[in-house]
Write a structure and sequence with these properties.
With 126 residues, this protein is of the alpha+beta class. It has a single domain, classed as Alpha-Beta Plaits (2-Layer Sandwich), CATH 3.30.70.20. It is built from five helices and four strands. It has a two-stranded antiparallel ribbon. The protein is globular, with a radius of gyration of 14 Å. InterPro entries: 4Fe4S_Fe-S-bd (IPR017896), 4Fe4S_Fe_S_CS (IPR017900), Fe-S_Ferredoxin (IPR050572).
């Protein structure tokens, strides 16, 4: 489910608004789109895959996450290089990751099982 649209990275191209099959986003004249219909998200990852600025994070969950979920912590996700990770995994990222992490930081692991992570988070917070 869509969780983060980072305003600092967003280029206001509105690709997410146009690509979303369930019309989750609303365009804002001269501004960053807004997540207007969060519960309509089908977790298809299209917005994250098509975002050229890696400004979007879709959590691998088809239900809304609790407010205290680590998958809703924008600063932690940015520091870990998680925004745009789906885009990278499908081979669509053509530019380096924009990250505040130092260049010597290890790349994010490619062995993450997103579905198992979300199941574990849901069990531990229930």
């Amino acid at each position: 489910m869509i969780e983060i649209l980072n305003a600092d990275r967003c280029t206001e191209c509105d690709i997410c608004v146009r690509i979303c099959p369930t019309n989750v986003f609303d365009a804002v004249e001269g501004g960053v789109p807004v997540i207007a219909r969060h519960s309509d998200c089908q977790t298809c990852f299209q917005c994250e895959a098509y975002c050229p600025a890696d400004a979007i994070f879709v959590a691998p969950s088809r239900i809304p996450l609790r407010p205290d979920s680590p998958l809703r912590d924008e600063d932690a996700l940015l520091a870990a290089g998680q925004l745009g990770l789906y885009r990278e995994r499908v081979g669509w990222r053509t530019t380096p990751v924009i990250s505040p992490a130092p260049p010597t930081a290890p790349l994010p692991s490619s062995t993450i099982d997103y579905h198992r992570t979300v199941e574990t988070l849901h069990r531990s917070t229930s």
